[in-house]
Amino acid sequence: MAESAYSFSLTTFSPSGKLVQIEHALNAVNQGATSLGIKAKNGVVIATEKKLPSILVDQDSVKKIVQITPEVGVIYSGMGPDSRILVRKARKQAQLYYQTYNEKIPVAQLVREVATVMQEFTQSGGVRPFGVSLLIAGYDSHGPQLYQADPSGTYFAWKASAIGKNMVNAKSFLEKRYSDDMELEDAVHAALLTLKEGFEGRLNENNIEIGIVGKDHEFKSLTPLEIKDYLEEVE
Fold first, then answer.
1. Which of 158, 147, 148, 143 has the alpha carbon at shortest distance from 214?
2. pLDDT-derived band of residue 53, with 50, 70 and 90 as boundaries?
3. Strand, coil or helix: what is 224?
4. 151-172 burial string, b = 16+ CB within 10 Å, else e?
5. 210 exposed, middle or buried (CB, 10 Å; 0-12, 13-18, 19+)?
6. Burial track 99-122 (b if 16+ CB lie within 10 A, e otherwise)
7. DSSP 160-185
8. SS3 category, 234
9. Does the predicted TM-score (pTM) go above 0.85?
């Protein structure tokens, strides 16, 4: 039988050993806006394109970078509503960990919990995989950390990564510009230059979002004014 005969079943492997619905979920991610993350020596930066469906949409109501805990933030490519479910579950898990152990959840453990939820949705009847990939940035006792979690439940720690529509070109660009001794300020500049490389139109403070976490262990989204200053530095 052809591969397509197995494409409607999530829990049935095709003869070549694939779960075709997961591949479709990855296609949904690849249709999403480009997002990227860079781990610097003293922090992590995540950035994404923010394209509104209409000029009538209130841009202040659209947020693609979300804080999970005071020191961890997340960005997504793919289906926004799916990301909200994962963010809510991540926040609950972080709070549960704090109530149990009276300390903040390590970034790696938080990522593992989110990835476990994503994996469960590849192995159950009557559900579908999440059509979203996440880049999770945080700073804990192990230093700055950047993780990517995919619809299959796979997750890896990265020095720099990109997801979404322009992923291939963005990763190629990052490979050329990344260095292990990069400072956070340099990482922000590299992120902007990478987004600029594949952006349709002109980058400005209203059509991109940037989040950073540094040695102060506080994740924050940059204001449009701060983004504008960085854009002027790289032009």
1. 143
2. confident
3. helix
4. bbbebeebebbbbbbbbeebbe
5. buried
6. eeeeebbbbbebbebbbebbbebb
7. EEEESTTHHHHHHHHHHH--TT--HH
8. helix
9. yes
